[in-house]
Specification:
The complex is a heterodimer of chains A (443) and B (788). Chain A is α/β, with parallel strands linked by helices. Chain A has two domains: 172 residues, 3-Layer(aba) Sandwich (Rossmann fold); 194 residues, Dihydrodipicolinate Reductase, domain 2. Chain A contains 13 helices and 15 strands. In chain A, strands 13-12-11-7-10-9-8-14-15 form a nine-stranded mixed β-sheet. In chain A, α2 links the parallel β1 and β2. Chain A starts with 11 loop residues before the first helix and ends in a 14-residue tail after the last helix. The relative contact order of chain A is 0.14. With 788 residues, chain B is of the alpha+beta class. Among the domains of chain B are: 239 residues, Leucine-rich Repeat Variant (Alpha Horseshoe); 93 residues, Leucine-rich Repeat Variant (Alpha Horseshoe); 123 residues, Galactose-binding domain-like (Jelly Rolls), CATH 2.60.120.260. In chain B, strands 1, 3, 4, 5, 6 and 8 form a six-stranded antiparallel β-sheet that branches. The longest helix of chain B has 23 residues. Classes of the chains: A alpha/beta (443), B alpha+beta (788).
């Protein structure tokens, strides 16, 4: 339930009316018309991109801090199923704006338990969704249907079907959606992928990707539901189970929650870091639009690692990426060399000189974004595609999800990346989606 | 109150965790004997118990999934659990895996549960993916019989299956909902689900029922209908039924719908326009509706039929400047060179933002024919378009662009043009420019340094001899430095590494005439940079050259050497009568003693002992103190004392003593003890932290390995600026057991905490953190104990 506050005139229509001026203001600040400026020289409220947050866990805090410190943006609503969490962040955000705008007693940031109420607000332009994975698809689709542009944390979806539904909704309503696979907006990963794409290591035949394993069944015992947590809403579309701290620890918990390791809610390490590292592997291979055709789980005999095979014969393995020091997360091996990449600007090549290579204008240049969040905001304003649009996020999530299904069924599977079904395999195709509890529905 | 409640919550969570831990700690169950045993055990399964029986059955599910007979038997066995006295968790388990292997054979068992509030969801979970009419009929029967609270889920399942058997029932539900003044609770949930399901079924009759829902008062209901309506239109379009699709888009592209719905319909209309949407998009660009003007930018980037780019470009003149600029950006994003002519023309706009967008567009869409115009903008000193134009030159596409730029560089007579083109060719990674750049490096002194800079990036190992020719010929010291950097850079990329060039450089050095003083020094610098020990004798020999400038250059080369091999040579030189050479050698000697080596600390100290008497000024004494502070041998302190006796580095000597002693500190902590040593590793970027938020009673203890009079502490958490201890107490002990009263207590408010207290004899220091910080750890990046 929203707490009613004084109204703010930040309508979407007014934003759109002035958005071309806003676009100009980013690239060329000196042409902002006077009417678009507040008296203090900051962006006037009517020109701000208004924003809501769904899910205020550990991952959301950085986003909230970034966006509320951006003068082009005004956060208007916060949603979380833990009352203490949402009250605290709404309070802090109100205090932030009170100080920033020199408006003591500022109370324009509302908080909600139900994301549908937040999505129904016509004065909100954009939505940042940082919920657990089982709560990615439904809020994203609801946001799209209500005309919001979306920043959606990775992995884009928990099941293949959820990914398909997100793509459809975003395209149907003409929304901008950026998936939070933010390694795409990183110099080392970008350069590594350009090197691979432009043949600097010859013809690629092998990719090794270091990510965690598949999810587990959840046998955690029942515990009392903490005060203020709407546990039924937290579970949402998932089968009912009683509360346990590891799944939804209270706000005071500093660590990462562990829902990510259980099948009902997420895809384990395969999807957690897979949404980053398989994403980069696909980018480097130029496979953003498609996926592998075979996925083979380890069998204790001749297959020692989860193996993906693309139609062109390239093999991608879970695990095995090497390199000096802490090693690579993604390693492409070609006929003429190797490229290894990881976070913190780790880029290693064999031969060494490859990494210094400049990619010329007549070569394949990949989308360049120096800042993932900023790239999304720029896309919201200009309506250009962001660096990680829903189709890309979906195909990356498919890699993670078909791998998990292969683990789940413990047998090799044939995947058709065009129809997004397993070939002649009704048993595997059942796992493309997941029935939902109660009245929850994808679209 | 807020924090008290949070603490209570935390306590509850911790208690619950302990209890769950106890549950885990119960005696281990006996191994599963067989499938019968597993099925028997799961009958009483409750969460928190061992999941081995479940996993056993899951393994069996995997085994039988493609063995029809075994699969049916196992599925029947799972289904049978649903009508026993098994626990709720056991029955949930059965449904989960029936979802994977269930068949029509289990429908009769599952169907009665669909109207049972406790099991309806899980029965649906099991049934929803099973193919066949029998499931549809079971779901329909349940829909008609179930309590209203279960109907939404059942309707969703029927919609998911696109089962037309339910069309009439669902249609009635939708019509009934429309007749209600307000919708809420399970009635609303059912209405929403029925609407979605009807849309998914998608027959003409179903869509007819949805038509009035498109304008329903209830926003959620309306959105559901619109979403399904659009989906049906999209499906028709995908099936080639363009007219049908178009009619459906048109039905909701009007003022009765909110803007976001109209936008979705508009997208469909653009897609189904006979001309690819070109005329409509032009209309949106030039129209009065700001929202559609904005939306049109997205279409300009990606939609439109033949001639669309020209049509969009033709709207430019009719637009006010604030709309011209985003149009140019969108046209540039479209990537069609048909807009290039407009870009060139738009550079004449009186509005700078438009000019800039046009210049950027020329870079995106241009070709070799665009070079001169962009070059002119890039060379216009003081113009705000300069950087955009340079960027544009760097991005120009076309196989002939590099050659055209090289041709202009070769023909250029103006240094400013040279610099621009050299920079652009470097940005473009134009290796074909190397011959031209070598020519510039040799013939145009004003820009030779720039050319060397580019060559360092673009040249290859095959160009090293030519680079050396230009370097040797260079007369300007700054240019020579750039030349040396270029050779080093190129050699570092050579297949054999930097050292592979060293022999070439050595040969060139040997070939120089004695009077080629500058060239010889440059080549000595290069030998040092390349760091091949095989060339060390050449450099060492040069320290005795007749030319004092070469002597000094050789000393510098040795002092900067990468390996520790020249340490003896540098010691000898440090005793040279030539003060300049001796100073350089002294500095290099101490530098190399600090490079990691297999020497023991005692051996290192012996090498320091050699040069201690040679230190003649404070700078050299400070270098020695810095080096000695890294030696893990307490006798290094004796050398520090000797240096301190000179009287000009008292404070630095105290730091050095503490640094040496800290290598023998031992630390303990209330948590995360594995990282304790990082609190005194002399690296401000590493830290010990509690690894949990601050709460009273956390402690960090250090044994300084000697009895001393302890009189202060410095706790530095500046790299984690909010992680200072909120409240603290400091204790000193002689034995690490008896601590006595605190020697200091207080509240910290800054990342660096400097404490002084009465000198207290002892060997152990314990800092106890007594505050609370709900969002911060307690971190110590560096700790100093101040003691006599």
């Amino acid at each position: 339930m929203a707490i009613n506050k004084r109204p703010v005139d930040l309508s979407r229509r007014r934003f759109l009316q002035s958005s071309t001026a806003a676009a100009a203001s980013i690239a060329f600040p000196y042409v902002i018309p006077g009417s678009a400026l507040g008296l203090d020289g900051t962006t006037a409220p009517s020109n701000r991109i208004t924003m809501g947050f769904i899910g205020l866990g550990k991952q959301a805090k950085g986003h909230l801090s970034t966006f509320r410190n951006d003068d082009r943006i005004q956060v208007l609503g916060i949603c979380d199923v833990e009352r203490i969490r949402r009250e605290r962040h709404a309070l802090e955000t109100n205090e932030h704006y009170a100080l920033k705008l020199n408006q003591p007693g500022y109370t324009c940031v509302d908080h909600y338990n139900d994301f549908r109420e937040l999505c129904a607000r016509d004065d909100i332009d954009t939505m940042v969704i940082t919920t657990p994975d089982h709560w990615h698809a439904i809020p994203a689709i609801e946001a799209a249907k209500n005309g919001k542009d979306i920043y959606l944390e990775k992995p884009m979806s928990r099941t293949i079907e959820e990914g398909q539904a997100i793509v459809k909704a975003v395209r149907r309503y003409g929304r901008i959606l950026q998936v939070g696979s933010m390694q795409r907006s990183d110099t080392a990963f970008h350069h590594a992928c350009e090197l691979v794409r432009n043949g600097r290591i010859g013809k690629v035949h092998t990719v090794n990707v270091n990510v965690g394993g598949p999810p587990n069944e959840c046998y955690l015992p029942e515990q009392p539901v903490p005060e203020g947590l709407d546990w039924d809403f937290w579970l949402g579309p998932c089968p009912y189970r009683p509360y346990h701290h590891d799944l939804a620890p209270p706000e005071a918990w500093e660590g990462w929650p562990e829902w990510r390791y259980y099948r009902d809610y997420a895809g384990g390490g395969m999807c957690d870091f897979g949404a980053h590292h398989y994403d980069i592997a696909q980018w480097g291979l130029g496979m953003d639009h498609t996926g592998p055709v075979d996925v083979i789980p380890p069998n204790g005999a001749d297959v020692d690692r989860l193996t993906y095979i693309y139609a062109n014969g390239i093999k991608m393995y879970r695990g095995g990426a090497g390199g000096s020091g802490r090693g690579a997360a993604v390693e492409w091996i070609g006929t003429d060399g190797i490229v290894r990449v990881n976070r913190s600007q780790y880029l290693e090549t064999e031969p060494v000189a490859i990494k210094e290579e400049i990619i010329g204008p007549n070569e394949t240049r990949l989308y360049w974004s120096p800042n993932h969040a900023e790239n999304w905001i720029e896309a919201v304003i200009t309506r250009k595609e962001p660096i990680c649009p829903p189709e890309v996020g979906h195909h990356t999530a498919n890699i993670c999800n078909i791998g998990n299904i292969a683990y789940w069924l413990n047998r090799p599977l044939k995947w058709d990346p065009d129809t997004e079904t397993f070939v002649n395999d009704p048993e595997a195709n059942r796992l493309i989606g997941r029935p939902m509890r109660g009245s929850w529905k994808l679209a | 109150m807020y924090s008290i409640r949070r603490n209570l919550l935390g306590l509850c969570a911790a208690l619950a965790l302990m209890l769950s831990g106890l549950a885990y700690a119960q005696e281990a169950p006996a191994p599963i004997q067989n499938l019968d045993d597993a099925f028997n055990r799961i009958l009483t399964y409750e969460l928190g118990q061992d999941g081995a029986a479940m996993e056993y059955i899951i393994a069996e599910v995997r085994r039988v999934q493609q063995l029809p007979g075994d699969r049916e038997a196992l599925a029947n066995r799972l289904a049978a659990l649903l009508h026993t006295e098994a626990t709720f968790q056991c029955k949930l388990f059965a449904c989960r895996w029936l979802f994977v292997i269930g068949t029509e054979g289990q429908v009769d068992t599952l169907a009665p549960l669909l109207i049972d509030a406790t099991y309806s969801d899980m029965a649906r979970y099991a049934l929803q993916a099973i193919p066949g009419d029998k499931v549809d009929q079971a779901l329909l029967g349940a829909l008609q019989a179930a309590d209203i609270s279960l109907k939404a889920g059942l309707a969703n399942a029927l919609g998911e299956r696109r089962s037309a058997v339910a069309e009439a029932v669902l249609a009635e539900a939708v019509k009934a909902a429309l007749a209600q003044a307000t919708l809420a609770g399970p009635e609303k949930a059912y209405a929403l689900a029925a609407t979605t399901a009807l849309g998914a079924i998608g027959t003409p009759t179903a869509l007819e029922v949805l038509t009035p829902v498109l304008t329903a008062a209830d926003r959620e209901l309306r959105n559901r209908a619109v979403e399904r309506w659009l989906a049906s239109a999209d499906r028709a379009y995908a099936n080639g039924e363009t007219d049908v699709a178009r009619a459906r888009y048109e039905a909701i592209f009007n003022e009765t719908q909110p803007e976001y719905v109209q936008r979705a319909a508009l997208e469909g209309l653009v897609m189904t326009d006979a001309d690819g949407g070109t005329a409509r998009i032009v209309g949106l660009i030039t129209g009065e509706n700001p929202a559609w003007q904005h939306q049109a930018l997205a279409y300009v980037r990606r939609l439109g039929g033949e001639g669309a780019t020209a049509a969009y470009a033709a709207t430019f003149d009719a637009l006010p400047p604030e709309r011209q600029e985003p149009l140019l950006l969108a046209l540039a994003g479209r990537g069609d060179a048909a807009a290039l002519e407009l870009m060139v023309r738009a550079t004449q706009s009186p509005v700078e933002a438009v000019q800039r967008a046009a210049v950027a567009g020329m870079g995106s869409l241009g070709n070799s024919g665009t070079i001169d115009a962009l070059t002119a903008f890039a060379l216009a000193e003081g113009s705000p378009l300069q950087e955009t134009a340079k960027d544009g030159l760097s991005k120009l596409r076309g196989e002939d662009v590099d050659a055209a730029l090289i041709g202009r560089l070769e023909a250029s007579t103006a240094p400013a043009t040279d610099r621009l083109l050299i920079g652009v060719l470097t940005e473009r990674g134009a290796k074909s420019a190397v011959p031209a750049l070598l020519a510039v490096a040799g013939a145009r002194p004003e820009v030779a340094g720039d050319a060397f800079g580019a060559l360092g990036t673009l040249a290859g190992a095959q160009d090293v001899e030519a680079l050396l020719d230009r370097l040797i010929a260079a007369t300007d010291p700054a240019v020579r430095t750039r030349g040396e950097q270029a050779v080093t850079s190129v050699c570092s990329r050579a297949p054999g590494g930097a050292a592979s060039c060293a022999a070439t450089v050595q040969t060139r050095y040997a070939a120089q005439a004695p009077e080629a003083q500058a060239a010889r020094v440059s080549l000595l610098n290069l030998l040092s940079d390349l760091g091949d020990d095989a060339t060390l004798p050449t450099v060492a020999q040069a320290t005795a050259d007749a030319d004092p400038v070469v002597q000094e250059g050789a000393a510098r080369a040795l002092a900067a050497w990468k390996s520790i091999t020249p340490i003896p040579d540098l010691f000898a030189l440090a005793q040279s009568a030539n003060a300049a050479v001796a100073g350089i050698a002294f500095e290099g000697y101490v530098r190399l003693l600090r490079v990691a080596s297999p020497r023991t600390p005692a051996e290192t100290l012996a090498l320091y002992d050699q040069v201690l008497p040679l230190a003649i000024d404070k700078t050299q004494r400070l270098a020695l103190l810095a080096g000695l502070s890294e030696v893990a041998d307490l006798t290094a302190i004796e050398r520090v004392d000797a240096i301190a006796a000179a009287g000009d580095a008292i404070d630095e000597a105290a730091l050095a003593r503490e640094a040496v002693r800290s290598k023998f500190y031992v630390a303990k902590a209330s948590s995360n003890e594995a990282d304790a040593a990082k609190a005194f590793d002399r690296d401000i970027d590493t830290r010990w932290s509690t690894a949990e938020t601050q709460r009273p009673g956390q402690w960090f203890e250090i044994d300084i390995a000697r009895e001393a009079s302890i009189k202060g502490l410095v706790l530095d958490s500046s790299r984690s600026a909010s992680d200072y201890p909120r409240q603290f107490e400091v204790f000193v002990s002689a034995d690490g057991a008896a601590w006595g009263a605190a020697v200091a207590t207080g509240v910290a408010e800054t990342p660096v905490l400097e404490l002084s207290f009465p000198p207290t004899p002892g060997r152990f220091v314990r800092i106890v953190q007594q505050g609370t910080a709900e969002s911060n750890l307690w971190s110590i990046h560096e700790l100093r104990v101040i003691a006599d």
